[in-house]
C-alpha cells in the first residue's frame, strides 16, 4: 500500500495567545476547507513560558469568531520534540526567528525549516506585528496577514 507523508506546520509567537493561535486557526480552516486535514498536522506555541495553559486573548477569539472560525487552543511553549517532528516552523517576527534558531541549534536531529510566516505574504509584509497592546483593528490586521500568508504557504506546499 502507498504511504502518506504528512506535512506539519508549526506557528510560533512570543506568548502564543494572539498571533500564533490566529495563524493556527486560519491555517486549520484552510486545510479543512480544502479537505486536506489528513495531510497536515498544525499546532502553535510560544518561545516564552509566560502564558502556558491560557486560552487566546479575548480579542483574538473575537476576531476569529467574526470570520466564522473557532479554536480551543491553549498556550504552550515550544519543545525540543517540535523541532524534530515538524517540517515547518513559521514565526511572526525577527525576535521569534532569532530565539527559534538559537533553540534549534541545541536540538539534535532538528528537521524543521524555520522561517517567517510573512515570507509567504503576497503583499510582502514580512513582519506580523504583535497586536497585544493594540485594539481590535490590530487583531484584524493580523488575521488578514495570516490569511494571505497561510493561503500562499498552502499553495506552495500542497
List the helices and strands and how they pair.
Layout: E1 7-13, H1 19-33, E2 40-46, H2 58-66, H3 80-85, E3 88-91, H4 94-104, E4 113-116, H5 136-157
Helix pairs in contact: 1-5, 2-5
Summarize the structure.
This protein has 158 residues and is α/β, with parallel strands linked by helices. Helices cover 40% and strands 14% of the residues. Strand 1 (7-13), helix 1 (19-33) and strand 2 form a beta-alpha-beta unit.
Main sheet record:
4 strands, parallel
Q: Structural class from helices and strands?
A: alpha/beta
What's the number of extended β-strand segments?
Answer: 4
Measured on Cα atoms, how large is the radius of gyration? 15 Å
Helical content class: 25-40%
Q: Within the CATH hierarchy, at the fold level, what is the topology?
A: Rossmann fold
Shape: globular
In CATH, the architecture is: 3-Layer(aba) Sandwich
**Kindly, what is the distance between the CA atoms of the first and last residues, rounded to a whole number of angstroms?**
21 Å
User: For the largest beta sheet, what order do the strands appear in spatially?
Assistant: 2-1-3-4
**CATH-defined superfamily:** Response regulator
What's the helix count? 5
Q: How much of the sequence is in beta strands?
A: 5-15%
Helix and strand string, N-terminal first?
EHEHHEHEH
Number of domains: 1
Describe this structure in words.
One of its GO terms (molecular function) is non-membrane spanning protein tyrosine phosphatase activity. Keywords: Cytoplasm, Hydrolase, Protein phosphatase. Pfam families: LMWPc. Belongs to the low molecular weight phosphotyrosine protein phosphatase family. One of its GO terms (cellular component) is cytoplasm. This protein has 158 residues and is of the alpha/beta class. The chain has one domain (7-157): 3-Layer(aba) Sandwich (Rossmann fold), CATH 3.40.50.2300. The protein is built from 5 helices and 4 strands. It has helices spanning 19-33, 58-66, 80-85, 94-104, 136-157, and strands at 7-13, 40-46, 88-91, 113-116. A 4-stranded parallel beta sheet has the order 2-1-3-4, with helices on both faces. Helix 4 links the parallel strand 3 and strand 4 (113-116). Helix 2 crosses helix 5 (136-157). The chain is globular and about 40 Å long. The protein starts with 6 loop residues before the first strand and ends with a helix.
Amino acid at each position: 500500500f502507498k504511504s502518506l507523508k504528512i506535512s506539519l506546520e508549526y506557528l510560533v509567537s512570543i506568548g502564543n495567545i494572539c498571533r500564533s493561535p490566529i495563524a493556527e486557526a486560519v491555517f486549520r480552516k484552510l486545510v479543512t476547507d480544502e479537505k486536506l486535514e489528513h495531510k497536515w498536522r498544525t499546532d502553535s506555541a510560544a518561545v516564552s513560558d509566560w502564558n502556558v495553559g491560557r486560552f487566546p486573548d479575548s480579542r483574538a477569539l473575537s476576531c476569529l469568531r467574526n470570520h466564522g472560525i473557532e479554536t480551543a487552543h491553549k498556550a504552550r511553549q515550544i519543545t525540543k520534540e517540535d523541532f524534530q517532528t515538524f517540517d515547518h516552523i513559521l514565526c511572526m517576527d525577527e525576535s521569534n526567528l532569532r530565539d527559534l534558531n538559537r533553540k534549534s541549534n541545541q536540538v539534535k536531529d532538528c528537521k524543521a525549516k524555520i522561517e517567517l510566516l510573512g515570507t509567504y505574504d503576497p503583499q510582502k509584509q514580512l513582519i506580523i506585528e504583535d497586536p497585544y497592546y493594540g485594539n481590535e483593528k490590530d487583531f484584524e490586521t493580523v488575521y488578514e496577514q495570516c490569511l494571505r500568508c497561510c493561503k500562499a504557504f498552502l499553495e506552495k506546499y500542497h
